[in-house]
């Protein structure tokens, strides 16, 4: 599955208003078009026959150790596409060792996104 297939599946499974909000951009959607063009320029160059038994993706972010270089930017209104909203996103981010920045327009209170699990790390900015 590629990003085009994933977007088509989202369009088919979400209510039209939810899909339009998620897939759309502001004003003339010039930045949206630039983002799509930028992703299309990425190429994966596989390196075959390499030892990947000890790959370490961990890094630091603002002096805090994180297990993955993947960061999820703040995006509003997660409950438009999933009943658990930002809680499900936080759970997925924690499982992947990714950092999640919760939007000020979240549909879930910030306090509920971290729960009491030690898998969540706060980074104060």
What would a concise description of this structure say?
With 125 residues, the protein is mostly helical. It has five helices and four strands. The protein has helices spanning 3-13, 16-23, 30-41, 86-96, 110-114; strands at 59-61, 64-66, 71-72, 99-100.
Task: Kindly describe this structure.
It is a single chain. The chain is mostly helical and 125 residues long. 38% of the residues lie in helices and 8% in strands. A two-stranded antiparallel sheet has the order 1-2. The longest helix has 12 residues, at 30-41. The chain is globular.
Terminal CA distance reads 36 Å
Structural class of the secondary elements? mainly alpha
Helix and strand succession?
HHHEEEHEH
- The low-confidence parts are none
Number of helices: 5
Helices and strands in order:
Blueprint: H1 3-13, H2 16-23, H3 30-41, E1 59-61, E2 64-66, E3 71-72, H4 86-96, E4 99-100, H5 110-114
Parallel strand pairs: 3-4
Antiparallel strand pairs: 1-2
Question: What tags apply to this protein structure?
Answer:
single chain; two-stranded antiparallel ribbon; 125 residues; globular; 38% helix
């Amino acid at each position: 599955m590629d990003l085009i297939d994933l977007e088509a599946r989202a369009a088919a499974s979400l209510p039209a208003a939810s899909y339009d909000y998620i897939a759309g951009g502001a004003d003339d959607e010039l930045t949206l078009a630039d983002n799509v063009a930028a992703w299309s320029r990425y190429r994966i160059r596989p390196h075959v026959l390499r030892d990947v038994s000890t790959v370490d993706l961990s890094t630091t972010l603002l002096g805090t150790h994180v297990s993955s270089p993947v960061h999820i930017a703040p995006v509003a209104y997660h409950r438009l596409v999933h009943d658990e909203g930002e809680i499900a996103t936080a759970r997925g981010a924690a499982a992947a060792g990714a950092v999640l920045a919760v939007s000020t327009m979240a549909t879930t209170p910030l306090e509920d996104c971290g729960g009491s699990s030690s898998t969540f790390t706060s980074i104060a900015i």
